[in-house]
Write a structure and sequence with these properties.
This protein is 33% helix and 39% strand. By secondary structure, it is α+β, with helices and mostly antiparallel strands. The strands form two sheets. Strands 1, 7, 8, 9 and 10 form a five-stranded antiparallel sheet that branches.
Length: 211
């Protein structure tokens, strides 16, 4: 089981000019290959008049899917360097598109590799690298009289409340970092004097506070 991985916080965009050619880097987190392809098509549609829209993406917590496309640039000078940026940063579920508008000066193979590498890096910087950590989702069922105390304790101890449902009893849905499940259970029992119900109902990856 993957407890923590690196990905991007949000879509990002940045531009650089190299020997009169414009390189516009786009990067985004994705959850599937379909999302990666949709992102690529969106950028291509935005830059239909570009000389090249070079792409690369990885999908899966173990990089199960890795793809790149040189879009007409010499083989090995564009898509591969972008894919290498993703792999060297150890990113998961990430797509990058580097759009080029040719400025009239040829860069040569080495120049292209450096330019597309730089275009990918500035896109990643704009999107911001984030660590995501596996959290368990707990449902805590308590009476209304305990709500204020329990809610305050949960927040003071660094846990994140995802949702609160108000029925006959109160149901709090709380994110708990992996390996802190037993600690959380004991704390809730203490806070409520054992007058509660605690259920583990799922899991989700969330940005890590420590990162």
């Amino acid at each position: 089981m993957t407890i923590e991985y690196k990905t991007l916080l949000k879509p990002g965009e940045e531009e650089i000019v190299i020997e009169k050619s414009r390189f516009i880097g786009y990067a985004s987190p994705v959850n599937s290959e379909e999302e990666a392809l949709e992102f690529i098509e969106k950028i291509k549609s935005r830059h239909k008049d570009a000389t090249h829209n070079v792409t690369a993406y990885v999908v899966g917590l173990h990089n199960e899917i890795q793809r790149y496309n040189d879009d007409g640039e010499p083989a090995g000078t564009a898509g591969v360097p972008i894919l290498e940026v993703i792999k060297k940063e150890d990113l998961r579920n990430t797509v990058i598109v580097v759009t080029r508008y040719f400025g009239g000066i040829k860069l040569g193979a080495g120049g292209l590799i450096r330019a597309y590498t730089r275009g990918a890096k500035i896109a990643v910087e704009a999107a911001q690298v984030v660590h995501k950590r596996l959290n368990k989702i707990f449902e805590v069922v308590i009476s209304y009289t305990l709500l204020g105390k329990v809610q305050n304790e949960i927040i003071q101890n660094g846990y994140l409340i995802n949702e609160i449902k108000y029925d006959t009893l109160v149901r709090l849905f709380v994110f708990v970092p992996i390996n802190k499940e037993e600690q959380f259970r004991k704390q809730v029992m203490d806070w409520t004097f054992a007058k509660c119900e605690i259920n583990e109902i799922g899991s989700r990856y969330l940005p890590s506070i420590s990162s």
